[in-house]
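Quick one: structure for this chain?
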Amino acid sequence: MSGRRGLGARWRRRRPLRTRLALATSAAVALVAVGVCAAAFVVIRYQMTRQLDLNLAQTAAEVTQRSRDWGPSAGDTNCRYQAVPCVQIVPSDPARDPDKAYAMPVTDATRQVADGRRAAYYSALTVAGQPVRMYTTRLPHKDEALQVALRSDTVQRGVRQAAGALAAVGGAGVLLAAALGYWVSRSGLAPVARLTATAERIAATRDARHRIELPAGPPGREDEVTRLAASFNTMLGELEQSVTAQRRLVADASHELRTPLTALRTNAELLARADRLSAAQRDRAAAALGRQLREVTTLVNDLIELARDEEPQPLVEQVRPAGLLEHAVRTAREHWPEIAFTTRIDPAAADALLPGVPSRLTRLLSNLLDNAAKFSPPGGPVETALTTVGGALELTVRDHGPGIAAADLPHVFDRFYRADAARALPGSGLGLAMARQIAHAHGADLTAEAPPGGGSLFRLRLPVP
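Got it. Here's what it folds into:
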């Protein structure tokens, strides 16, 4: 048994989904059609037989009214079984039987009905080569049984005709079910076929720009397959953006690394001929080599940090943003002694706690402060504040430098993006991109804006659980 089931399962797995759906739909509709025809046949046969039984019972009642003075009889001329009923009366005692032979069979059941030991009953038999339906009942106040018979060949013929008609209808229903199953499988799975073709085309060409054509219709009334295709298109869009971002990252990284690597190679080759250089030249070349190594190391570390999509869960702990901000500002003062950093912390936010990775949040704040200090004029202020707004913590960093141009504002968080005014300044163009990624990994939102009065303002909203 298990072998047959396994064989059937393998056969189903080897068939295409369209074939399996067509077979399942056809089988379901065919089963319903055959079931309805079978039920109709049973009902028709029952009703025709019941109508014949009612005619027999009605005839028996009429004969009972007329046969009060009759005695046992073996039948009459009506027993030729034409369109009229045949009637005979049978006593319970065989000694009272008439001399003439009975036209219809007389059994012990007939005698039992005559003396009241058995209830009336219907029976089907063959008399004189003809099928008949006979009703046997007891005459009231007499030990005699009344037998009334009618030919049943007309009923049987009608039942056979009904069976033939229903069989034809059932066969047509099966054929219609097959056609409907094929149509349903083709129309219902058409979006799935398009989805499969698109997926295969993407797998073959590795081009995520392909999309599945969606049927036109009112929004909000799409079926499940259309929603699946729309979700697949959305996934393809995300994949295309991811591939594009990956390619852009690789291209930008290679572009950014080309210059320092070239300088490293030049200085390394220069130091390889140190015997031809003076002591001052060797010191300058060594210092430049060390500075370029630090730049390349920082750039590679930034790229590794940006490649991570989320924070490692084992490193998440409860942190106090106010303490992180104070620490980041102290470090920035040591790094940028010519910049005046100020900090304002709302008392309601001073002791707030939220889950996060302290080192990563510190890196976020350091990047924002370094960016503000880099664009601030010497002696210019960099203002930081931590407040509570609408149940969330809001941290702001503002400088009073040249600000962000309106054309650059949508791109300040892009990787390797630099405004025209920042191309001569040090840095790789990854600091703000890394800051936004860290913010998103902590469920926060980091935005940039141009405040009134000049400069730039970065706003970090941290959700408090």
